[in-house]
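Response to reviewer comment R2.3. The reviewers asked that we include at least one raw input/output pair. We reproduce the pair for Phosphoribosylaminoimidazole carboxylase here without editing.
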Amino acid sequence: MAEKVVGILGGGQLGRMLSAAASLLNVKVVILDSGDHAPAKQVVAPTAAHLAHVDGSFADAEKIQELAKKVDVLTMEIEHVDVESLRQIESSTNLEIHPSPSTIHIIQDKYRQKEHLSTHKLPLGDFLGVEPTVASVQSAVDKLGLPLMLKSRTLAYDGRGNFAIRDASQIPEAISTLGERPLYAEKWVPFTKEIAVMVVRSASGEVLSYPVVETVHKENVCHLVFAPLRSRDPTLSDRARKIAEDAVKTFSGAGVFGVEMFLTENNDVYINEIAPRPHNSGHYTIEACETSQYENHLRAILSLPLGSTALKVPSTVMLNLIGHSSSMSEIEKTRDVALAIGGTSVHLYGKAECRKGRKMGHITVVAESDTQLRERLRPLLLSFPDTTQ
Ligand code: ATP
Ligand code: MG
Ligand code: MG
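Raw output as returned:
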């Protein structure tokens, strides 16, 4: 077993689930996060006790250097990190960084990411760079039509960097809402479903994909993830997996990547965006696959053999527990409902404060059939405000 110590930039729920997987493999983990009780810092691989976590931001060059001094391999649970620091560490030390700083550099700017994917001839909707001026956005509307999705190139998550322009009169509001950030525009994709594929890439470039999942979003936030994807088109799953694998092959460095895609009426698949890390749409792999995305991420970055990505249950769903208010009471109510249902696993992230719209935990349900899955899911949806559908 590798004796390497892993440093993780970011200590939220993804870092927490990576740490939990690390503790099973007895891999030492050190977390960099500004919260001294960040979710990931509450889960400590037992042998890491002598290595104190670092309090600071994953965007702070000095703090990244401090983390780097303690570990052998650096990885991240978020792409909005300071890439310059990673590049310096890459050129001046023997530390392994996964995925590579050049991958993070491409992916963390969504426009640069789209250009990269387009250069590699991967299927994408049309997009254009724009300046944050009415004239420039109007010219994008003229070329790409309405509605138009105006997006922040950087620091986007949970749709908080997107503005759907439905009428040209909204252009000034769209620009002021997205603020001073660099922008680009995407042609509206009239998708019928959103799907995703997690792909794990070894340091030598081998890729393995997980089953295709259907992701259901509510107000831009992932709400439900169903696996496997059900479709009348027998070619769809293999096509989507191939596109996701081909996309991940274009990047360097090891680890898990989340590939978000749109499915159109004609069953065409377009890539929406790629995350260079474990992803919300892969939480289900903990209970439903032979190797979780978190364990496979660790195996990949530590040059251990990758594990099987196969489903080990016929049907599964993941329900995000999104904060309803500053109180955890709604979430606790759903937790109690879940604890009485067979095949459910509750994950609460230990975040210091509950807030409306914040991801506070999730529940995974596994079942012997889609019918049993629906039966098990129904009371959970009914118990949770605003999530009935
Ligand atoms: P994440 O939390 O997944 O990182 P994000 O802030 O990066 O989200 P996107 O994934 O770009 O945002 O978009 C959020 C959602 O907005 C998508 O899941 C999809 O529902 C919708 N969306 C994004 N781009 C388009 C588009 N071009 N056409 C139609 N809908 C879109
Ligand atoms: Mg994103
Ligand atoms: Mg997204």
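Residues 125, 149, 156-162, 186, 188-189, 194, 217, 220, 260, 272-273 surround adenosine-5'-triphosphate (ligand 1) (CB under 6 Å). The CA atoms of residues 132 and 180 lie 7 Å apart. Further pairs are available on request from the corresponding author.
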